Amino acid sequence: MLQVTSNNYHKILSSHDTIHVFEFYSKLCGHCKMLQKELEELSRESEEDIIFGKVDIEEELFLLQKYDISSVPTILFIKNGEMKEKLVGYYPKVIINENIKKIK
Question: Which of 13, 19, 21, 32 is catalytic?
Fold first, then answer.
């Protein structure tokens, strides 16, 4: 999983026809750690046209405000630079994978 920052955000999103799955997390959040394990498994199992990334909410206030993130963990599903889905809270990888398939 890529660490997404304000500095590399535009470069990561520049790959078109790619689905981006970003987790907004806090280092102290237990549910975030559980979710990160699910996303890491999915990233190993997924096709090349899906990019998984994580955004530390304590360091990336710009991205936090841009996507109106009010609680963690939050997962954003982005395609062609546009947010398609948003999940707030912990979800197992089956649900995350269903959301990816929905926007493919």
Answer: 32
Supply the pTM of this predicted model: 0.93
Domain count, the chain: 1
Q: CATH number of the domain that 89 lies in?
A: 3.40.30.10
- Residue 98 near residue 19 (C-beta atoms within 8 A): no
Residue 48: give the domain boundaries: 2-103
Q: Give the tens place of pLDDT for each residue, 65-102.
A: 999 999 999 999 999 889 999 999 999 999 999 999 99
Indicate if 32 belongs to the active site.
Answer: yes
- Catalytic one of 1, 29, 83, 87: 29
Decide if pLDDT at 16 tops 80.
no
Going along the chain, which residue ranges are E strands?
2-3, 19-25, 50-56, 74-79, 82-88
